[in-house]
Amino acid sequence: MRAGSRLGHLLALAAVTAASLRVVTGAQDAGPLSAARDAAWAPDGARIAVPLPDQIWTMAPDGRAPRVFAAWPAGTPTPVERDPAWAPDGRRVAFAADLGTGFDLYVGEEGGAPRRLTIAPGDDRHPSWTPDGRLVFAQRTREQWGLMTINVD
To answer: Mind listing the pLDDT tens digit for each residue in 34-65?
Structure first.
């Protein structure tokens, strides 16, 4: 989705309750965007990362200052981005992206080119940071899912 299209008129509202995080999104020129899911709060609470619908955007908790998270190098196939997870330091986000051959994990800083972390057959999804900076994630090979860890640095 390009910034000049529907997302140019994005209205986002985040509400936190004791039991859940709910992100409600809509566009002025269309009905509600039902594709918003898997929102992730930055550790300091100043930004939210959310896939809308196939590209991760970051924004303030009130929906202001929306920005495309990753700046893919020229010539990169259009990725499908999912599962953002902020690093404990609040500078980086790990996420899953499919460039046409299955989901792999990437890490990057807002507005920068992401760095690929995995390249295994199958799908790597749902990264979660450990306090010491490693990632735990789900990996699927054939029809079997398992948990894996990887050192990021």
So the answer is: 556 789 999 999 999 999 889 999 999 888 99
Within a 10 A sphere around the Cβ of 52, how many other Cβ atoms? Answer: 24
pTM for the predicted model, two decimal places? 0.77
Q: Are 127 and 96 in contact (CB under 8 A)?
A: yes
Q: Which residues are registered as beta bridge partners of 49? A: 40, 58
Q: Residue-wise over 68-105: b if at least 16 C-beta within 10 A, else e?
A: bbbebeeeeeebebbbbbbbeeeebbbbbbbbeebbbb
Phi and psi, residue 36, nearest 5°: -70, 125
Q: Where are the beta strands (DSSP E) in the chain?
A: 10-16, 21-27, 40-41, 48-51, 56-59, 67-68, 80-86, 92-98, 103-109, 115-116, 123-129, 134-141, 144-151
For residues 35-45, one letter each, b for 16 or more C-beta atoms within 10 angstroms of the residue's C-beta and e for the rest, the string is ebebbbbbeee
Query: Nearest-5° angle of CA 110, CA 111, CA 113?
Result: 100
Among residues 48, 47, 50, 20, the alpha carbon closest in space to that of 36 is found at 50
